[in-house]
Design a protein that fits this description.
The protein has 67 residues and is an alpha+beta fold. It is built from one helix and three strands. The protein has a domain of 38 residues.
Length: 67
């Protein structure tokens, strides 16, 4: 994924990360924890289902989650 702060995701460097999502996900029923920061700076965490799926427009393999 892009680390340049440009908001870009799904670059060609994602192969190893996507493999890791698949490997760990298959062992943990595809459950993951996603954390974000609220406007006051406090964390908010949610248990989600996560997997590698085909992007609906480009068909590229991407990481995705649903709550």
């Amino acid at each position: 994924m892009s680390t340049a702060g440009d908001g870009a995701m799904g670059t060609e460097d994602d192969g190893p990360q996507l493999d890791l999502i698949s490997a760990i996900g298959s062992q943990d029923s595809y459950l993951a924890v996603v954390s974000t920061l609220r406007s006051d700076g406090s964390p908010h965490s949610s248990l989600v289902n996560a997997a590698v799926v085909a992007h609906p427009v480009t068909g590229a393999q991407v990481g995705a989650f649903v709550t």
